[in-house]
Specification:
single chain; binds S-adenosylmethionine; Rossmann fold
Length: 239
């Protein structure tokens, strides 16, 4: 109380340390069905956090949104789901840049969701909702969303095919799946596979990802979709 500056700095440092701790010891809520070994494989390690928490990351997310809007504007702007939202800065952009009136965003890691709630601009408190959840098992009925957004999380998910099936299930017909995704030549190359932690079994490359979209009734939209050996940015429509 007598040293408010010291207390504030201490809290700041504590928050930084907590957020950068690779695995929280806090229990996750029951909504997460993945067991803890599986969960650990899917979470970011600290070198990846440095990138995802950096102020540059939202600039990339803005750029992807610009590409998506050129490919296909959402037919309806009522309800969007963001999977694996991290700190939630993408969720705020979905409201502000894409114009969604109701943004539901979740992540497997509870500590990120607590942080996302804390840093959400107060003007978006009524628009954006965060929760802890697992992209392999979405706690929503069928066809409840006008759009689903993936800012680069599916390569973290063990059952990535199941995740794409879940995305398709919760999208209403005519709704869009907007995605930015990366492939092993980028995140598991000689250097990065030593630095970053990702699942290693049954990973996908471009053709696998596109086949999974198609077999789940998600039709890739023509336009400025960028697809390379490193990753893809695009949109698919639920048929
Ligand atoms: C590369 S980060 C991307 C974070 C955020 N989308 C962004 O672009 O800044 C991957 C995120 O996916 C989350 N994640 C991994 N597996 C998940 C799962 N099964 N369900 C939900 N989130 C998951 C991680 O906790 C992490 O926050």
């Amino acid at each position: 109380m007598r040293f408010p500056m010291v207390t504030a700095s201490y809290t700041c440092v504590q928050e930084y340390v907590t957020v950068f701790t690779p695995q929280s010891t806090e229990p996750t809520r029951d909504i997460v069905t993945a067991d803890s070994a599986d969960r650990d494989q899917m979470l970011m390690n600290w070198p990846e956090r440095v990138w995802i928490y950096s102020p540059i990351r939202p600039l990339f997310q803005r750029r992807e949104i610009g590409k998506w809007l050129k490919i296909a504007k959402p037919a309806k702007l009522e309800r969007v789901l963001e999977i694996g939202c991290g700190l939630g800065r993408g969720a705020a952009l979905l409201a502000r840049k894409m114009g969604f009136r109701n943004v539901v965003a979740f992540d497997l890691e509870e500590i990120l969701i607590r942080r996302a709630r804390r840093i959400l601009p107060s003007g978006l408190a009524e628009t954006v909702t965060f929760f802890v959840g697992d992209a392999q098992d979405l706690p929503f009925p069928d066809a409840g969303f006008d759009a689903v957004v993936n800012f680069g999380i599916i390569h973290h998910v063990l059952d990535w095919r199941g995740c794409i099936a879940e995305i398709s299930r919760v999208l209403e017909p005519g709704g869009f799946f907007y995605f930015e995704e990366i492939y092993p030549p980028l995140y598991a190359n000689f250097l990065l596979k030593r630095m970053l932690r990702h699942p290693t079994e049954d990973r996908f490359y471009g053709p696998d990802f596109l086949t999974a979209l198609q077999s789940n009734g998600l039709q890739l939209q023509p336009g400025v979709c960028t697809d390379s050996r490193f990753g893809i940015v695009g949109a698919a429509r639920k048929i």
